[in-house]
């Protein structure tokens, strides 16, 4: 028989354990997100730090979107559209299916196709064109969307499920309309369950040709090199083999490298090349790069200009670790030239090209924000793990970045974690001002996807000229799932869409 | 409770063996891929296919090391408060501290590869601490004090079980 004292002790222990378990269960269930709106994130999104007051520049009408905020009333993201009365110049229908992807040179994998292939068809438009894309979801069970990565589209066309639209269900369709204002290399991909659908191939290239050819970017041949890993196979334009490009000796070839993967890609060659554009923005007076590699963040694009050798020998341009674009030479002569060892030194775009005045003055910002990435253990939506934090706060309690149309925004990006993060801001392009206190000294380095390495701190700036609610997240998409996502929130803009509701929206 | 404590300690020690085996398997897979002409780059790494046949090794190492072992070490410390054996709490605490250090090191290796040297050595320290903990409660009754403790422990075990 246990003594009375023992019984008492057991009772106390029992109550303590039950209380601890109960408190743990309550704490755990409090992390469950359920259905939520991004409007409610960041504690009502009014708590972000660092306001420096607003200028009186709001309502300048600089935005491409026609649904500009009129001052007092709120506007829904759904109303921030391109001119509805204008007839489209380019009209495309893209049909998404869940199924087998044929990988030439490799083995077929299960994934997602657009119009029967992955990558889907390349959309080609001319600067100034109004592009109208009808997206049809034929069989993607989770629903899908199209996001125009790098194109500063009106918010209604941004394609983020649960933020700017509902995921398009099987049998549904959605029309995106935008004006192709900036020439350059871009891509489209799903922004619904994106860590699966992008990896699975629901994507394609977009190339916007300049209204008039520029002198530096003048190339005889223009080739797209879209990198993607399908089921462990590195591919170039969907094929697990090199791409051969015909080019007459002495002529130049513009290679548009798109990194649609989840990590940094490297580009190098034993022939000198020029980096003529980053993320769809021309580099001013780009110099020749030799003996260095060029790194492209996940989601980023870089256009390089390569000159075919005068002697007719082919030039191998490595795009990513495993594939190359072979320029010139007699086509398919054996395997092309030998592999070139990858240089260990990387081209620093902070000091590449020649300086030129910025289109705005970042020295007197209207808003100043910190975006500090770190990592700690915790629970998100009932799921324990080692999650990314923004300014020390874990999703969904991350800061929101409030702006007003016309604001000049200065952001201090810092990576206190141990992994690289390719940070991607929707709907805007940022100019890099400095890295680790060293001011940019080359051509304005304008990007929408920026690798921030462990320990690095970048100062970036942009003009808030595109009203809406815009995701600002890591493009190693598994990191976004693990909390590395927040939003840029324009004053007076609201969204009727929710995440995890009946529409099944799950943007990451 | 002694049995639970002892079992947890042994499972932690065994878990470290699983960790060593899993990571060797994973890197075997990577080298195997490279040897067959594949190129391992960041894109492949992030697509979680760099390990080839050994890819599950990375997965096991991550789940066991990042989740299972920390929870087991935490459970060991909790259980130690219900076990009356000299040093049971101390060695459970040491085990948990070493596991916490190990996880922190593991997540930092990508940025600072040299930490891998400590990560490997610290794994053996965890095995040592867990085994010492297990032996703490297995000690046969020797002194008079020990005997009374064992008797009391058995009583409370019977009630709480």
Description:
The complex is a heterodimer of chains A (508) and B (161). Chain A has helices spanning 4-29, 41-44, 194-197, 477-481; strands spanning 75-76, 90-101, 109-114, 123-126, 130-137, 147-149, 173-179, 184-189, 203-209, 221-230, 233-236, 243-245, 252-259, 265-269, 273-278, 281-282, 288-289, 294-296, 301-307, 315-319, 323-327, 367-380, 383-390, 393-394, 401-403, 408-415, 421-425, 430-435, 438-439, 446-447, 449-452, 457-463, 469-474, 485-490, 493-494. With 508 residues, chain A is mainly β. The longest helix of chain A is centred in the first third of the chain and has 26 residues, at 4-29. The termini of chain A are far apart. The relative contact order of chain A is 0.17. The model of chain A is unreliable at 45-71 (pLDDT under 50). With 161 residues, chain B is an all-alpha fold. The model of chain B is unreliable at 142-161 (pLDDT under 50). Chain B has helices at residues 2-35, 42-46, 55-80, 88-108, 115-138, 144-160. Classes of the chains: A mainly beta (508), B mainly alpha (161). The A-B interface holds A 2, 6-7, 9-10, 13, 199, 227, 229, 231-232, 234, 259, 261-266, 298, 320-322, 375, 384-386, 418-419, 454-455, 476, 478 and B 38-47, 49, 52, 66-67, 82, 107-112, 155-156, 158-160.
The coarse silhouette of chain A is globular
Low-confidence stretches of chain A: 45-71
Question: How many distinct helices of chain A?
Answer: 4
Q: Report the major sheet of chain A.
A: 8 strands, mixed
Query: What's the end-to-end separation of chain B, in Å?
Result: 8 Å
**What is the count of β-strands of chain B?**
0
- This entry's quaternary arrangement is heterodimer
Query: SS-based structural class of chain A?
Result: mainly beta
Could you report the average pLDDT of chain B, rounded to the nearest whole number?
A: 88
Radius of gyration from the alpha-carbon trace of chain A, in angstroms: 24 Å
> What value does the Rg of chain B take, in angstroms?
20 Å
Portion in strands of chain B: under 5%
Strand content of chain A: 35-45%
How would you sum up the major sheet of chain B? none
| Stretches with pLDDT under 50, minimum 5 residues of chain B | 142-161
By DSSP, the count of extended strands of chain A is 35
């Amino acid at each position: 028989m246990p003594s009375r004292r023992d019984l008492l002790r057991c009772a106390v222990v029992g109550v303590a354990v039950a209380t601890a378990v109960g408190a743990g269960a309550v704490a755990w269930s409090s992390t469950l997100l359920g259905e939520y709106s991004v409007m409610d994130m960041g504690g009502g999104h009014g708590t972000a730090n660092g306001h420096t007051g607003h200028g009186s520049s709001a309502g300048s009408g600089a935005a491409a979107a026609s649904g500009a905020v009129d001052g007092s009333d709120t506007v829904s993201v759904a109303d921030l559209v391109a001119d509805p009365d204008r007839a489209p110049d380019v009209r495309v229908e893209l049909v998404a299916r869940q199924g087998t992807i044929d990988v030439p040179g490799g083995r077929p994998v299960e994934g997602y196709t657009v119009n029967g292939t992955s990558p889907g068809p390349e959309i080609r438009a001319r600067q100034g064109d109004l592009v109208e894309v009808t997206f049809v979801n034929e069989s993607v069970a989770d629903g899908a969307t199209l996001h125009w990565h790098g194109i500063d589209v009106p918010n209604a066309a941004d394609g983020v499920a649960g933020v700017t639209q509902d995921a398009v269900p099987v049998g549904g369709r959605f029309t995106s309309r935008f004006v192709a204002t900036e020439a350059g290399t871009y891509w489209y991909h799903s922004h619904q369950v994106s860590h699966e659908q992008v990896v699975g191939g629901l994507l394609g290239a977009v190339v916007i040709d300049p209204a008039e050819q520029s002198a530096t970017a003048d190339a005889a041949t223009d080739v797209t090199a879209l990198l993607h890993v399908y089921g462990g196979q590195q591919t170039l334009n969907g094929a697990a083999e090199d791409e051969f490009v015909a080019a007459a000796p002495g002529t130049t070839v513009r290679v548009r490298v798109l990194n649609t993967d989840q990590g940094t890609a490297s580009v190098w060659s034993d022939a000198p090349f020029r980096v003529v554009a980053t993320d769809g923005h021309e580099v001013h007076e780009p110099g020749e790069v030799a003996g260095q590699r060029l790194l492209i963040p996940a989601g980023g694009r870089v256009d390089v200009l390569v000159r075919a050798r005068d002697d007719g020998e082919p030039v191998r341009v490595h795009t990513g670790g495993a594939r190359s674009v072979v320029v010139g030479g007699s086509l398919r002569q054996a395997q092309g030239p030998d592999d070139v060892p990858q240089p260990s030194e990387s081209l620093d775009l902070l000091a590449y090209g020649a300086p030129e005045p910025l289109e705005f003055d970042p020295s007197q910002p209207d808003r100043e924000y910190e975006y500090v990435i770190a990592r700690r253990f915790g629970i998100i939506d009932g799921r324990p793990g080692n999650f990314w934090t923004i300014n020390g706060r874990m999703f969904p309690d991350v800061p929101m970045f409030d702006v007003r149309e016309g604001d000049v925004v200065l952001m201090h990006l810092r990576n206190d974690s141990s992994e690289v993060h390719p940070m991607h801001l929707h709907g805007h392009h940022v100019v890099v001002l400095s890295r680790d206190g060293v001011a940019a000294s080359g051509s304005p380095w304008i990007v929408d996807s920026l690798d921030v390495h462990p320990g690095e701190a970048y100062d970036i700036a942009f003009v808030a000229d595109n009203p809406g609610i815009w995701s600002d997240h890591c493009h190693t998409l598994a990191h976004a799932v693990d909390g590395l996502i927040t939003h840029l929130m324009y004053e007076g803009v609201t969204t009727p869409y929710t995440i995890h509701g009946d529409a099944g929206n799950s943007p990451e | 409770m002694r049995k639970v404590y002892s079992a947890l300690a042994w499972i932690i020690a065994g878990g470290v063996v699983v960790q060593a085996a899993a990571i060797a398997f994973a890197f075997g897979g990577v080298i195997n891929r490279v040897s067959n002409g594949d190129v391992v780059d960041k894109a492949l790494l992030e697509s979680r296919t760099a390990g080839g046949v050994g890819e599950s090794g990375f997965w096991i190492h991550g789940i066991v090391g990042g989740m299972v072992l920390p929870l087991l070490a935490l459970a060991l410390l909790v259980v130690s408060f219900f076990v009356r054996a000299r040093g049971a709490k101390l060695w459970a605490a040491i085990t948990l501290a070493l596991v916490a250090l190990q996880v922190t090191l593991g997540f930092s290796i990508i940025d600072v590869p040299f930490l891998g040297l400590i990560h490997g050595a610290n794994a053996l320290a965890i095995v040592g601490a867990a085994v010492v903990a297990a032996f703490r409660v297995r000690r046969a009754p020797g002194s008079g004090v020990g005997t009374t403790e064992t008797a009391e422990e058995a009583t409370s075990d019977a009630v709480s079980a």
